[in-house]
Amino acid sequence: MFVVATAGHVDHGKSTLVRALTGMEPDRWAEERRRGLTIDLGFAWTRLASGRDVAFVDVPGHERFLGNMLAGLGPAPAVCFVVAADEGWQAQSSDHRDAIAALGISHGIVVLTRSDRAPGSADEVLARVRAELEGTGLRDAPAVTVSAVDGSGLDELRSALDDMLASLPEPKPDARVRLWIDRSFTISGAGTVVTGTLTAGTLTQGDHLLLVGHDGARPVSVRALHSCNLGAGSIGPTSRVAVNLRSGLSADTIHRGDVLLAEDSWPLVDTVDVRRTMGASFADAPGQLLVHVGTATVPGRMRPFGADHARLTLDRRIPLELGDRLVLRATGNRSVLAGAQILDVDPPALDRRGDSRRRAAALAAMSPGGDALTEVARRGAVRVEQLRRMGVSDLGQVPDGVRAFGEWWVHEPVFDAWRRRLRSAVEQLGEQDPLAAGLSRGAARDLIGPAGGALLEAVVREAGLEHRAGFINLPGQRQDLGAAEAGIGVLEHRLKSAPFAAPEAHDLTALGLGSRELAAAERSGRLLRLGDGVVLLPRAPALAMRELAALPQPFTTSEARQALGTTRRVAIPLLEYLDSRGWTRRLDATRRTIA
To answer: Where in the numbering of this chain does the Tr-type G domain appear (predicted)?
Structure first.
């Protein structure tokens, strides 16, 4: 299906045209039909000769209902711009032209209606229309003159619609869902139903979605789907879609401008940096604004960075991405003030003097679709999924200047700085404290920051370092025991002749071996420390196993102590160590066996 919105001055025949094309009444309210004036959005659909299905979103033309008109145009990919041949360009024609320009709509048809009432040729009217549309995406749009009363030109219009729809960019059925809601109502026996124009992604019965509105975000699921009054198991873009929600929510609590999202796929933001695309200079804009996006109207505040760039702070969080088009209006004013395009949905804080000037320069160099290298460089390191959620478009390959580590992309200069900083810290620690175990993981994370901490293993590897016993050291580095070397040597000599005669605490003190010296000797593979201050050589467990294996099995603790020629102070922690390695197995409180 394809979706086309109407646009044009009030009473120029938009609804009459839709009625003539579809045979359906787009005006839904009795008051609209009574007054002959479209107040709210209307919907109708038909099938063209090519077999293409097209749905029309008919918008009001009166200036009092400009907000409703923008809600209809916001999600639409194409437009029929209607101007009456007997009246020509009018005031609201300009308002609707400005809205189309602000939204960046570049596919459409100019329709000159009421040709049966025109006093002469419509060429002069068309020339004026062309001139007025010169600065918009419709400047080269095909034009058709019609009369909905006598039917002239309708076949030509249908053919032009077919050609125009064939030129639309291919929608993306696998994209993440963002359905801006334009209606909510209740159907007896079914419950709450919401409608909108699905521009990308696919909705499927049973989907779990997020409903984001004025009251925050709430989980919902899809009970049933309809498009053009026909049920469907799934509906892809571009389509008018009605979603029957399983949520427990009343339709009265869901409003136009709320949005259905695929879960965990969109950032909800209330601050964005934007570039002016048309309209008044941002430098002259009022501080308080109405921001239109999709079907939503959100109050906001502007902080200009000169004429063409600004920061918008919205009154509530909504799902936005890079490149989204916004229509800006001054509060209390019915006309379009300016159009804007989002450059950043995660802008940096501006706290220092000169930040606004620097930010303006940065924004001037940014692409509306987002640039992966720029976004990675700004953050140093970022998950690819975060870039995808922001709407960065060029994620097909890792850009030059970026290194990929699994789900992380890291700016090369940042990674190189982490690597140098970490290696320098390890080298300095070794020089300052030869007995240090090495740089702890916590200290390393503090040194390179939270993002670097998530990539610590990669940084350690790329820095030419290694992990040993939970500490980071230079590879193959032998522990420098310094002044403790002599005491360690004496202890090694004693234990070689009596491997289970662990020294007492006063012996260690006499040798100048405190806990730091003993820990350093153990890290270097010179000693083995067991519980209760027992110090042996690293080969002591293997020697013990040789003696214990010669005992009748099972054996008692006392028998093991006697076989090893040692005391209970040494035997018990040594046996517990053997148990922990799975070399011996404890049978009860006193007996063990070789495993």
So the answer is: 1-172
Average pLDDT over residues 221-248: 93
Strands (E), 307-414: 309-319, 325-330, 338-344, 381-383, 402-405, 408-411
Helix (H) or strand (E) holding 192: strand 191-198
pLDDT of res. 296: 94
Residue among 375, 372, 347 at smallest CA distance from 275: 347
CA contacts within 13 A on the Cβ side of 103: 29
Q: Tens of pLDDT along 410-438?
A: 999 999 999 898 888 887 776 665 656 66
Return the amino acid letter for 348: P
**Cβ contacts of residue 281 below 8 Å, gap of 6+?**
307, 308
Buried/exposed code over 90-99 (b: 16+ C-beta within 10 A; e: otherwise)? bebbebbbbb
Rounded to the nearest 10 degrees, the angle between the axes of helix 557-564 and helix 568-580 is 110
At 590, the pLDDT band (50, 70, 90 cuts) reads confident
Backbone angles phi, psi at 85, to 5 degrees: -65, -25
Nearest to 20 by CA among 140, 107, 116: 116
CB burial of residue 545 (10 Å; 0-12, 13-18, 19+): middle
Q: What are phi and psi of 100, to 5 degrees?
A: -65, -40
Measured CA to CA, the distance from residue 576 to residue 594 in angstroms comes to: 13
CB atoms within 10 A of CB 74: 26
User: Cβ(289)–Cβ(299) under 8 Å?
Assistant: yes
What are the φ/ψ torsions at residue 467 (nearest 5 degrees)?
A: -90, 135
**Would you say residue 467 has pLDDT above 80?**
no
Q: Which two tokens stand for residue 210?
A: 């997020």
Q: What are the phi and psi torsion angles at 344 (to 5°)?
A: -155, 125
**312: DSSP letter:** E
Lowest mean pLDDT among 59-63, 101-105, 127-131, 154-158: 59-63
d(CA 305, CA 311): 8
Q: Would you say how long the chain is, in residues?
A: 595
DSSP 3-state assignment of 231? strand
Q: Residue 233 burial by CB count (10 A; 0-12/13-18/19+): exposed, middle or buried?
A: exposed
Q: Which two tokens stand for residue 29?
A: 């309210």
The answer to whether residues 297 and 348 touch, using CB atoms and an 8 Å cutoff, is no
338: three-class secondary structure by DSSP: strand
Nearest-CA neighbor of 527 among 567, 558, 560, 491? 491
Cα separation, 219 vs 215, whole angstroms: 12
Adjacent-strand bridge partners of 220: 209
Cβ atoms of residues 391 and 370 within 8 Å: yes
- For the beta carbon of residue 267, count every other beta carbon within 10 angstroms: 15
d(CA 233, CA 226): 9
Q: Give the ranges where 322-455 is alpha helix by DSSP (H).
A: 355-364, 372-379, 384-390, 412-432, 441-454
Helices (H), 267-310: none
Distance CA 17, CA 80 (A): 10
Cα separation, 171 vs 105, whole angstroms: 15
Tokens of 529: 């420390």
Going by C-alpha positions, the residue among 116, 125, 119 that lies closest to residue 88 is 125
